[in-house]
Design goal:
Shape: globular
Number of strands: 38
Number of helices: 1
Radius of gyration: 28 Å
Helix content: under 10%
Length: 473
């Protein structure tokens, strides 16, 4: 193995993927192709990476039958699963010490528009991995990118900025309302209806901009008076129903029904205090998403809401793993599954079977804390923004582990006392050897209160393990 001349090999092990691992006393861990004896990687302590080795001295290595490598050093034990990773972090090529907290994200023809929490915005090209800074004010806080026709829009704390696609320079969009013009700040969201009217959701209500007029909705239409001073976080135009769905930060959902000419016809209100068809489980609305079957999904602080096609009722998805979870972003894949993000990872949800699987840092994601930034490209790849960059994956290529979790008994108690081999208790000796080497135990009538302790072999991700037991007799 062609390691550095001053490297002293202290430990060796082989993993199930034809890889030899060589630990050294001063140069970290070498990853070697067993066929060619070529060094694939040299892993050492890296203070910039949360998941690096504790230090570069590796006195002992072990790879178990689940293809998990265990690395011992003077500061403890590290471990890592060697199973193929399903997720990739998009290489943004930014300063490694700069924040990569992604607040806004839009995919557009091999380019990704990025808005960071620190106010910096970029255009990243996926093919050549270049990242260029967008021309925006330094004190901007980006919220969300949109694309209408060939124009890219960005909502922010300073209003709305727009640019032609692939143009790095953005221009402030003037929104001149007839009333309360000084309050046009913090535009959280926008949408456009089929008549070309624009709707802007802000901290103090909804602005409607048509070809002939621009004003707050509560000034244009008496029936929109309920929207005055409402903190509107998300907007969605439903083409098939010709209505605007309005999601607020803490005051529920509003539905704006439009006439054929694009005028406000009526307003409907959904809230947790309402009854019958207008009741919803939670009033904090993060996002709307319409799937391929024309069902509308809503992300809230208490999980998912679903309005099925043809219905006017939002039902609360009570599936464990989703209920009471904050859902910040929703994206449907090409197979009809929903992918949801929150501050604990990414959730895969199959609506037909109600099957749920959660992915986190342990599964190869760059972090477990995600934001409301999400988009999908023409190949079905999904991009999720997080506090540590962009995670990209293709749902059709995700491989699930087929390894069977083994169960091991770790102890047996009788009347809350641990039973040890060859030591009698209450009239008899229960174990003659270790519990894991014992097929049968016999208890007398005085030993009528007992319990077993056990563990599974899936140490890498214990939350994936579910156990059940049955008493027969």
């Amino acid at each position: 193995i062609p390691v550095a001349e001053d490297s002293e090999i202290s430990s060796l092990c082989a993993s199930g993927d034809n890889i030899i691992w060589a630990g050294t006393l001063n140069q970290g861990l070498y990853m070697v192709d067993a066929s060619s004896m070529r060094i694939i990687d040299n892993i050492s302590k890296d203070n910039k990476k949360y998941s690096s080795l504790f230090n570069s001295s590796i006195p002992s290595l072990y790879c178990d039958n689940s293809n998990t490598i265990w690395v011992a050093n003077r500061k403890g034990v590290c471990f890592a699963s060697l199973l193929p990773k399903n997720f990739t972090q998009v290489p943004l090529n930014l300063d490694p010490f700069s924040s990569q907290h992604i607040q806004a994200l839009l995919y557009d023809r091999k380019n990704i528009y990025l808005g960071m929490q620190n106010g910096k915005c970029y255009l990243h090209n996926i093919d050549n991995h270049t990242t260029k800074k967008l021309g925006l004010p330094q004190n901007i806080f980006p919220i969300k990118f949109y694309k209408f026709d060939t124009q890219i829009y960005l909502t922010s704390n300073l209003g709305i900025f727009h640019s032609e696609e692939n143009n790095l320079q953005f221009t402030h969009l003037s929104i001149d309302t007839e009333h309360e013009a000084s309050e046009i700040q913090n535009i959280f969201s926008m949408c456009r209806d089929r008549s070309g009217n624009n709707y802007y959701g802000g901290y103090t209500g909804l602005i409607i901009q048509t070809k002939n007029e621009c004003d707050w909705a509560h000034n244009l239409y008496d029936q929109a008076g309920l929207l005055r001073n409402k903190r509107i976080f998300t907007l969605f135009y439903d083409h098939s129903s010709h209505c605007i769905w309005v999601g607020t930060i803490s005051e529920g959902i509003y539905k704006i029904n439009l006439t054929d000419e694009g005028k406000v016809q009526s307003l409907e209100f959904y809230h947790s205090t309402m009854s019958n068809s207008y009741h919803i489980a939670n009033n904090a609305i993060w996002c709307f998403y319409k799937d391929r079957n024309d069902n509308i999904w809503v992300g809230t602080d208490a999980g998912l809401l679903l309005k099925q096609k043809g219905s006017n009722v939002f039902s609360h998805i009570s599936t464990p793993g989703i209920v009471d979870k904050k859902i910040m972003a929703i994206m449907e894949d090409n197979q009809g599954k929903l992918w949801l993000s929150n501050s604990q990872g990414i959730i895969e949800y199959t609506p037909d079977s109600r099957k749920v699987k959660q992915y986190s840092f342990r599964d190869g994601l760059s972090t477990s804390t995600f934001t409301e930034a999400v988009d999908k490209d023409e190949d079905g790849n999904i991009y999720f923004g997080s506090i540590n960059g962009i995670n990209m994956f293709n749902p059709s290529r995700i491989k699930q582990s087929t390894r069977i979790n083994q169960v091991y008994l770790t102890g047996v108690k009788v009347h809350q006392q641990y039973i040890k081999p060859e030591i009698p208790l209450l009239g008899s000796t229960i174990l003659s050897k270790s519990i894991n080497d014992t097929d049968t135990i016999r208890l007398n009538y005085r030993q009528n209160n007992f319990s077993f302790e056990f563990s599974g072999s899936n140490i890498i991700d214990a939350r994936e393990s579910e156990f059940r037991y049955k008493l027969v007799g």
